[in-house]
Design brief:
The protein is about 35% helix and about 20% strand. By secondary structure, the chain is an alpha/beta fold. It folds into two domains: about 180 residues, 3-Layer(aba) Sandwich (Rossmann fold), CATH 3.40.50; about 160 residues, no CATH class. Strands 6, 7, 8, 9, 10 and 11 form a six-stranded antiparallel beta sheet that branches. A hairpin with a 4-residue loop joins strand 8 and strand 9. Helix 2 packs across helix 3, helix 4 crosses helix 5 and helix 7 packs across helix 10. It is elongated, with a radius of gyration of 26 Å.
Length: about 350
Amino acid sequence: MQADATTAELGRGRTDRPLLFISHRHTDQSIADELRKFVVDRSGGRIDVFQSSSAQAENPRVGRELQQELKEHLWAAEVVILVYTSPEEDWSYCMWECGVATLQTPETRIVVFQCGRHTPAVYGDAVRVNALELNGIQQFTSDFLTDPDFFPGHAEAVAPGFSAAGEEVQAAARQLHGALDLLIGQSAEEGQDWATVPFLRLQLSYVEVDSIRQLGQEEGARAVLEAARVVEIDAEAMRLFGLGRVEQQSLFRLLVDTWKSGRPDTPTLWIDELTEQLREGSHWRRLRFRWQLFSSVDQADTAKYAPVLSRVRSVPRRRCHEFDVYFNKFETAEGAVRIGFVDEPQTAPGEIPAHVSGVG
């Protein structure tokens, strides 16, 4: 990739090569990387690509003020691809980028790459590419390679010798669709759900998991406790730990430390049990549950809880593994733990002696 153009060259008057700007959240860098490689490879290097998260694309230069640098490239861009994944994320900066591009140069084309079921409401009328469907990728590929108006400032197709429905275009579409499907196909939204018992989702990066797999049992479990971060936690789980709010990406250790301070004289075997489940889960192994029980920090809650790792998921676009943890609930009565939910009738309740499984 050539060095970045000067500010003067980034004006609307530049006539050498079109500029395509990829707007994305940094957690979606892997998707942006695939789009950049596709544009560069399929255009034979005739298209400049700005991607702030990639050293292989035009990106903010050292020593320059970031927003001014972004504005210059946005003003020069003839096409902006917005990588859009989930409405639950914060899109304020991406919306700012798209706004800067279109307010300064209204003819700039915004292309929304829809990587889930929803599109941003503000761009409901923009060109949308359903990245999960081959037909959508085929239409985008055909327009990108064969439409002379795809880049508004350049009245020439990227690949003028190709037919819109030709095999070259279809092959390029299949390649892009396959690459994107590996990144987003399994993590696309599937609607809303809710947990019937306290729920916690933890995250470890691919690098962290690779490191943990090299450690023994005790060291690996300790590394899990130190590295795991919270990506989702419901109100009931926060209540267990004595917290009213948990920031996303908070360290799991902070939750554990808060629980310890609220229950200083309570056995902590459940912590060892959960970290061991996470360590085993990072190896994709079947788990053996030991049902180590613990109490909520909420003194009014007389139930006991046992952590259960129910699901491990690889998320390629975020380069991480996610671990879904549920805290199964048990009732205590007269020195025993009764299986089931508190205050619900039991048709055939089982009992576990209170001294078993770390019950204090």
